[in-house]
Amino acid sequence: MKKVMAGCLVLALLLTISLAPSDAWANGRFHRGGGGHFGYPYYYGYGPDYYYAPPPAVVYQQAPPAYAAAPPPPVQREVVYPHGKYVLYGDGVTQAWQWVWVPNAPASPPPPPPAR
Q1: Could you tell me where the DSSP H helices lie in the chain?
Q2: Closest CA relative to residue 12, chosen from 23, 4, 21
Q3: Which of 56, 57, 80, 99 could be joined to 85 by an S-S link, Cβ 3.0–4.6 Å?
Q4: pLDDT at residue number 46
Q5: What is the pLDDT of residue 115?
């Protein structure tokens, strides 16, 4: 009984492998990559050779010239009034801006009255 079951199993396996559809069967015909009237003759192999164009040559464009940035306009560092002035300290990057009031020196005393 075991031999019969093993024989049936081997037969079923062989039939499954041999009857399974494959990529060689297309549109109901077996394609071998040639064969005379089915396409290309058998001595051509499995179809035409396809040649691809090489990739295009890499072209590097020259970078546009870099120009130095224009210097910022000069900063007005003093605002003068009749009784004093404001002076701006700092650069805004490494030291914060700071306005400082600087009073004018006191007026000199009036000259002494003329002697009589």
Answers
A1: 2-19
A2: 4
A3: 80
A4: 60
A5: 82
Give the CA angle between residues 92, 94, 97 to the nearest 5°. 30
Listed ranges 28-37, 40-49, 88-97; the one with the highest mean pLDDT: 88-97
Query: Is the pLDDT confidence value at 87 over 90?
Result: yes
Cβ atoms 37, 49 nearer than 8 A: no
Q: What token pair was written down for 105? A: 């020196």
Q: Which two tokens stand for residue 86?
A: 């404001």
What amino acid is encoded at 6 in this protein?
Answer: A
The model's pTM: 0.34
Buried b (16+ CB within 10 A) or exposed e, 77-103: eeeeeeeeeeeeeeeeeeeeeeeeeee
